[in-house]
Amino acid sequence: MPLAHGGTAGEGRIRVDPVDFIVREWLGFEADGEGDHWLLKVRKTSANTHWVVKQLSRLSQIHARDIGFAGLKDRNAVAEQSFTLPVRSAVESWIGVSGDGFEVVSAIRHRRKLKRGALRGNDFDIVIRDFTGDTGRLAAVLDAAAVQGVPNYFGPQRFGIDGGNLVRARKLFGGEIRIDDRVQRGFALSAARSAIFNAVLAQRVTDGTWNRIQAGDMASLDGSNSIFAVEQVDDVLIERCARLDIHPSGPMWGRGALLTGGAVLALEQRVANSLAPFGDGLERAGLDQERRSLRLRVSNLQWDRSDGNVRLQFRLPRGAFATAVLHEVMGGGLEGADSEDSD
Q1: What is the pLDDT tens value at each position of the chain, 343 positions in all?
Q2: How far apart are CA 110 and CA 191, in angstroms?
Q3: How far is CA 126 from the centre of its chain?
Q4: Given phi > 0 = left and psi -120 to 50 = alpha, else beta, which region is 6?
Q5: Quick one: CA dihedral 168, 174, 176, 182, positive or negative?
Q6: Is 255 helix (H, G, I), strand (E, B) or coil?
């Protein structure tokens, strides 16, 4: 995938130890302090989200479907995330409860079950070990990322180990296999959608338009799912885009006509045609056209370099991949270096 800020700054090693990749969920709200649910903050190490749900279900004797969480967090990390479960459970006091790969660090009463997507974002604390590269170049890349954002690529985790989710999508759309498991089918469909989106974004990075509004774009409001059509670019839109208030968007493929126009429409259609098996399969699967921002705001970015390592700290909105930032620093080879939320 092409880089936006002038090339990589160096090389290094990711996830040498789980503590090298720390994720803290940012819900954007506090517990109610009363209600029929517990809002648990759980710290998990080398354990995925669904594993923790199974352990909480077993301990509480509450069905897993009644346990809520806002997003998926990767197994290969130390992650703090929240879960809700009904107060009516086999456990009366959750503080200090622990199991294989997790521990409960806080428990407060809450009125509602936590739903998927009900979070604002994630805070990341990442160590790149044995980093080799020029400090000045590293500073330039990270300064650009902080001011201009980064291309909002889907990370390797979306495509599965060795691209396995994409392989299953091809076979599914080609009639070679059936996928009856709802979760696995969802992974395959999401991978196909993400492949089309990444290809459109890669072309706009190459063209230098990933961070510029054009006539025919569907503009995305920062921090929102709201979009609007850009018929003509004026100084107001240019200024709003420069301060990251709005971003160009790209297609999340499905049924229905593309909402873009002009050269933007032509580019998106051309890319989709080159990946026709995915696009056709997604339409047959019943997904509808949606949009996703091409640019990702990187907030609260801090970094330091010492003892041969680089430490990065930043905040991303929900649905974003930490790889989008790491990719600008180190380029490819970041498989597994992600933690994502449901889109």
Answers
A1: 899 998 889 999 998 999 999 999 999 899 999 999 999 999 999 998 999 999 999 999 999 999 999 988 878 899 999 999 999 999 989 999 999 999 999 999 999 999 998 889 999 999 999 999 999 999 999 999 999 999 999 988 889 888 999 999 999 999 999 999 998 999 999 999 999 999 999 999 999 999 999 999 999 999 888 999 999 999 999 999 999 999 999 999 999 999 999 999 999 999 999 999 999 999 999 999 999 999 999 999 999 999 899 999 999 998 899 999 999 999 875 544 455 443 3
A2: 34
A3: 16
A4: left
A5: positive
A6: strand
Among the residues of 226-311, which ranges form H helices? 235-242, 262-274, 276-284
Give the three-class secondary structure for 205.
helix
Joined tokens for residue 2: 């092409």
Residue 97 has a CB neighbour count (10 Å cut-off) of: 18
The Cα–Cα gap between 290 and 152 comes to 15
Tokens at residue 60, please? 């509480």
Catalytic residue, chosen from 20, 74, 217, 341, is: 74
State the Cα–Cα distance between residues 98 and 233, nearest whole angstrom. 55
Bridge-based pairing of strands 21-26 and 121-133 is antiparallel
Q: Assess whether 234 carries a catalytic annotation.
A: no
How many residues belong to the chain? 343
**Rg, Å, the chain Cα set:** 21
Q: Which of 125, 124, 129 is nearest to 309 (CA)?
A: 129
Write down all domains in the chain, each with its CATH number in brackets.
Answer: 29-110 (3.30.2350.20), 152-158+195-296 (3.30.2340.10)
Secondary structure of residue 266 in the 3-state scheme:
helix
Beta-strand ranges (E) seen in the chain are 10-14, 21-26, 37-45, 68-69, 78-86, 98-99, 102-110, 121-133, 150-151, 218-221, 227-229, 246-252, 290-293, 295-296, 299-306, 309-317
Please state, in angstroms and rounded to a whole number, the distance separating the CA atoms of residues 333 and 312.
18
- Per-residue confidence (pLDDT) for residue 333, from 0 to 100: 53
